[in-house]
Amino acid sequence: MKFSTSLSHTPYPISHIPYPLSLIPYPLSLGVVGATGLVGEKLLKILEERNIFPEKLFLYASEKSLDKEIIFNKRVYPIISLSDDFINDDWDVLFFSAGKEIALKYAPKALGKARLIIDNSPAFRMEDNIPLVVPQVNGELLNSYKGIIANPNCTTIQLVIILSILQKKFGLKSVNVSTYQAVSGAGKKRLMYLETNGLDGSGFEREIINNLIPKIGDIADEYYFTEEEKIIRESRKILSLPNLKITSTCVRIPIKYEHSENMTVELEKESSYEKIFNELIKEKIVRLPENRDFFTPLDCEDNDFIYVSRLRRAFSDNRFWNLFIISDNLRRGAAANTVDILEYWVKR
User: Fold this and answer.
1) What span, in angstroms and rounded, lies between the C-alpha atoms of 70 and 113?
2) Are residues 313 and 206 in the same domain?
3) Catalytic amino acids?
4) Is 245 in a helix, a strand, or coil?
5) Which of 56, 182, 208, 321 is deepest in the core (most CB within 10 A)?
6) pTM of the full predicted structure?
7) 325, 324, 322: which is closest to 267 by C-alpha?
């Protein structure tokens, strides 16, 4: 089996990528653990789009993927079996996109070999001594850093970028967010189940086709589920607001890609539609509609933007505002943020 991450397959023009083409100042040695997964594939695609072509590239996956090969920058790369022997390689940066158990097993062993490890799983996110980073919010944590960096949950990333903008300008008192999350966030087998109308892949504990499931993850404290708990805890850590009043409800819906979030925020200062709009539009990865139009998930597929619409007052109070935000969960919600971390770290 082969798949290509060629830039020519990008379904939108390069001018729609919210970054200048990167100029990494020195040759890099990169490793990707979980290279054949949904996030690993997107990671390689985004590296190509941003002209990040490492001098050395090591692509790791489980033994069931050893018959695959990956085309990157017009070169064919074999899949390397993920085993204890992989720590004999040397990397500047090692990406983990293979789940919590793999990260816990292999990332600590690789610490002496890699200058930076960026993990996309929840394994290290709430560790006090490990930064949880969204560069647009707390990129200063990457200055001269060496070690493990945790990449936040897919729903958290788009949320905190918007919340950070509001916090800096108007202050932030409380957040109530509900998410509508695509099946791809649960992995390839769940995505295949939806794509084949239940004929292949793996389903959920309740039927997802023509249905929605108000449960993501396992049961946690106070009858929240773990996905909801992640949003609350991670947002507080990234924003450095440990006492932020925030609540969440997470729902799985039967679409392939893009996570949507509806939030009501309480600001410390009164504001207006125009003031909030003008602050949000300053962030290069945020898109807002003209004439108060709205976005849908299909409008937002396969790019790195955060789309904000339905901006309006709540409770007829100038301190309370509703927003509806959407982004591609595999790109902005995972792979794009890891590449942002790489670029911020190298340039600093």
Assistant:
1) 24
2) yes
3) 154, 259
4) strand
5) 182
6) 0.91
7) 322
